Amino acid sequence: MRRVMGTIVQFLPRNVNAVCIQWRDASDEYTTHVRIRITNVTNKIAAFAVRCANLIYIDLDHSDITDTAVTALAIHCTKLAAIDLVGCLGITDIAVTALATNCTKLTALNLNHCGTLTDKGVVALATYCTKLTNLGLEGCTKLTDEAVIALATHCAGLSEVCFGCCTELTDKTVVAFANHCANLSNVRFGSCTKLTDEAVVALATHCVGLSEVCFSCCAELTDKAVVALANHCRNLTQVNFSLCTKLTDKAVVALATHCDHLSTVDFGCCRELTDRAIVALSKGCFKLSRVVFDHCAITDDGVCTLADERKATLSSIDLRGCEGLTDKTVAELCKWCTNLKVANLFDCGLSCNVLENLRDYTARVTARESTA
Fold first, then answer.
1. Per DSSP, what are the bridge partners of residue 162?
2. Is residue 148 within 8 Å of 170, Cβ to Cβ?
3. What is the spatial distance between Cα 314 and Cα 157, in angstroms, rounded to a whole number?
4. What's the whole-number mean pLDDT along residues 229-239?
5. 221-225 long-range contacts, CB within 8 A, separation 24+
6. In the chain, N or C terminus with fewer CB closer than 10 Å?
7. Above pLDDT 70, what percent of the chain?
8. DSSP secondary-structure letter at 299?
């Protein structure tokens, strides 16, 4: 009878568990995916975990959950394959170690901005959760090369990793990922300020399937790193090199020449970039939809080419602080870019009336698409 009830509840609304205790237990037993948005979650998760032994995915991001609650969850829900704990400031290595030792089937774990984590918890993940494919540890600033290299060594199936703002990491970490995780497709090392060209070149050479990369604020990177990505990773769709101030047009031209699937590029505050870069992208990347070149040496000529060449695809553009622009830029964007929903041209010295017209234009495009 209980199995029959369990089969039935899979096709009923989630609030069926309010009917009676029997329906609640049956519903919980066959629950596999949960997103929890309650306060005092620590006091309630233990009882929930006991009833939901078949849980596969749970989202607890930005909750007040603690080590005690996560440990209870790990002990009772050993089938967990994915868990989201973004911004859960109450968890430490104790919680992560409990997950690692009990939930060895984990494939996706998001611990972004769990700032108290140290190497100890990450080494436990590397030891027991070797099936991981997606891992987020952005903002975990206490991590060092030793622990992350252990991850790369033992979790060869990783395809997406995020280590933004892990400022202690060096080239050794990225080289380890390059050597052991050939299936990487999405890597985020923004604000890992110790990284150099050596790291990116190794990644490009060994992980040719990369589609999304973020190395924003990695100020030591030069054209050599970006050219290596362009030469080896032809399937790139999104790149972020904002505040990589040593880059020149050579790097962007290489991407435009070899990576024609690029849709999103961010070169904000790369002040050496000129119209040559934006023109190359305009002509070479037929899917280009989001462009960020704020505070670069861009003029009307570059934007006019972009508006003409990518009029059907361009939806977002950020050119803040590009002082070489005039009102002509806005006129061209409004004339050609029929799908433009976001345009930031503040601090470019443009007239207030022109900026107002641009705002009205993008609002109309957005409204049109929302009613289509």
1. 136, 188
2. no
3. 35
4. 98
5. 221/195, 221/196, 221/197, 221/246, 221/247, 222/197, 222/246, 222/247, 222/251, 223/247, 223/248, 223/250, 223/251, 223/254, 224/197, 225/196, 225/197, 225/199, 225/200, 225/201, 225/251
6. C
7. 91
8. B
Could you tell me the two tokens for 285? 């990347």
How far apart are alpha carbons 237 and 266 in whole angstroms?
A: 12
Would you place residue 337 in the very low, low, confident or very high pLDDT band (cuts 50, 70, 90)?
A: very high
Q: Per-residue pLDDT averaged across 234-263, rounded?
A: 98
**Residue 192, Cα to own-chain centre: how many angstroms?**
15
How does pLDDT run across 22-32, given as a tens digit for each residue?
Answer: 445 544 555 67
Least Cα distance to 67 among 102, 96, 105, 104 occurs for 96
**Contact, 304 vs 279, CB < 8 A?**
no
Q: Answer yes or no: are the C-beta atoms of 86 and 112 closer than 8 Å.
A: yes
The rounded distance, in Å, linking the Cα atoms of 309 and 306 is 5
305 CB neighbour count, 10 Å cutoff: 18
* SS3 assignment, position 291: strand
CB atoms within 10 A of CB 38: 12
Contact 320, 292 (CB under 8 A): no
The residues near 226 (Cβ < 8 Å, ≥ 6 apart) are 200, 239, 241, 247, 251, 252, 254, 255
How many whole angstroms separate alpha carbon 372 and alpha carbon 220?
Answer: 46
Angle between helices 2-9 and 21-29 (to 10 degrees): 70
Amino acid in position 172: K
Is pLDDT of 42 > 60?
yes
pLDDT at 3 over 70: no
Please tell me the number of Cα atoms within 13 Å of 15 on its side-chain side: 0
Neighbours of 109 (CB within 10 A): 23
